Amino acid sequence: MSEFWSMKNEITLSDALKIIDSTDHNGRAIPFDISFRTLQRNSKTGGKLYEYKKVTKYVRAKSKNPNYLAIAQSSTKRKRNPNHFENRTRNVELQNGDIRTIHIRLIISINGQKVIY
To answer: Are 21 and 57 in contact (CB under 8 A)?
Structure first.
């Protein structure tokens, strides 16, 4: 019985990413709970454990200005492309409006379900 319970309480990484990327019928991101660790690159050890409730995937709003691209290109301060797919990262927006970048391989659980790889 305990094996059945543990299997039911686990989720694959691809299913976890589907939860992160999910939207409602209006196209807005659906909130989820997440816990993940940080990584200390110098010592190659796990860092702090973070747990956040009701976060959403952060999607930068598109400008309605038709000259946005020309303005962005002429600006001296340009933002780098985050390459989330290549870097295996996602941006999440916390309830207080802060934006955090998480590495998907360091996700511990989503909505109380343990992420397995």
So the answer is: yes
Helices (H), the chain: 2-8, 13-21, 68-74, 84-87
Phi, psi of 74 (to 5 degrees): -80, -15
Phi-psi region of 84 (alpha: psi -120 to 50; beta: other; left: phi over 0): alpha
Count of domains for the chain: 1
pLDDT tens digits for range 49-101: 999 999 999 887 665 555 554 544 545 555 677 677 777 889 999 999 999 99
How far apart CA 23 and CA 12 sit, in angstroms, is: 19
The domain in which residue 72 lies consists of: 2-116
Q: Which two tokens stand for residue 50?
A: 């973070």
The answer to whether residues 73 and 108 touch, using CB atoms and an 8 Å cutoff, is no
